[in-house]
């Protein structure tokens, strides 16, 4: 398993079945082609994750990535916000996936970082690095924010920055983050709920709203090529 696929799995919502593939995840670290220091960090991250109760690990993930927009794993959230350009960017990315035989078989937006990493893990290395270089500034920002909240996930973003060919120099980014008003506090979340209108439609979702399933080592594939 290459580094991008492994980081894709680790950044994704930690579903219960992940604990069934712990040995495969640990073994995959040795095949990821990362520097020894980063390999050690991955092993420590996985060991810490597997030592936690799944519910605890899932709550930690939700607290970090699903409360407020500043740590969103939807890349276009950081690039386009709520502008109309975001919709066209989604369409273009979907067309790129399909043109390269990557069909999404999960309920997930195409700019979801773990999904993008899974796609890039199927592409030539030079192409994958170029893609990541275009979003390296976002990955640096996420790394700096993660370091100030739950430091465990920060090295995963740093590894992606390094993979893009960009040196990890987070000093200026951490200074910027230190001046930010956090959007994941109860007060900030309540303010968002008060500001955003609730829209009801005639059709209810046909499936529940839990995060979409992802492919783990040894498990069934969630995409077809």
UniProtKB/TrEMBL annotation:
GO terms for molecular function: metallochaperone activity; unfolded protein binding. Signal peptide: none annotated. Residues 204-213 have a biased composition (Basic and acidic residues). GO terms for biological process: chaperone-mediated protein complex assembly; nitrate assimilation. Pfam families: Nitrate_red_del. The keyword Hydrolase does not apply. Keywords: Nitrate assimilation. Residues 204-225 are annotated as: Disordered. InterPro entries: DMSO/NO3_reduct_chaperone, NO3_reductase_chaperone_NarJ, TorD-like_sf. This is Nitrate reductase delta subunit. It comes from Rehaibacterium terrae.
């Amino acid at each position: 398993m290459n580094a991008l696929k492994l980081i894709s799995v680790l950044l994704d919502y930690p579903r219960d079945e992940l604990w069934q593939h712990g040995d495969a995840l640990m073994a995959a670290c040795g095949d990821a082609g990362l520097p020894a220091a980063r390999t050690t960090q991955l092993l420590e991250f996985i060991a810490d994750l597997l030592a936690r109760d799944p519910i605890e690990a899932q709550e930690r993930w939700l607290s970090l990535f699903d409360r407020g927009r500043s740590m969103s794993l939807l890349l276009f959230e950081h690039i386009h916000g709520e502008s109309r350009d975001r919709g066209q960017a989604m369409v273009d990315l979907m067309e790129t996936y399909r043109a390269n035989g990557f069909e999404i078989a999960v309920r997930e937006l195409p700019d979801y970082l773990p999904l993008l990493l899974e796609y890039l893990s199927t592409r030539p290395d030079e192409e994958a690095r170029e893609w990541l270089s275009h979003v390296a500034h976002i990955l640096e920002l996420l790394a700096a924010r993660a370091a100030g909240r739950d430091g465990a996930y920060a090295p995963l973003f740093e590894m992606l920055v390094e993979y893009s060919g960009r040196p990890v120099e987070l000093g200026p980014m951490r200074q910027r983050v230190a001046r930010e008003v956090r959007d994941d506090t109860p007060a900030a979340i309540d303010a968002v709920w008060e500001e955003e209108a609730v829209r009801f439609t005639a059709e209810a979702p046909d499936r529940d709203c839990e995060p979409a399933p992802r492919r783990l080592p040894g498990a069934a594939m969630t995409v077809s090529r």
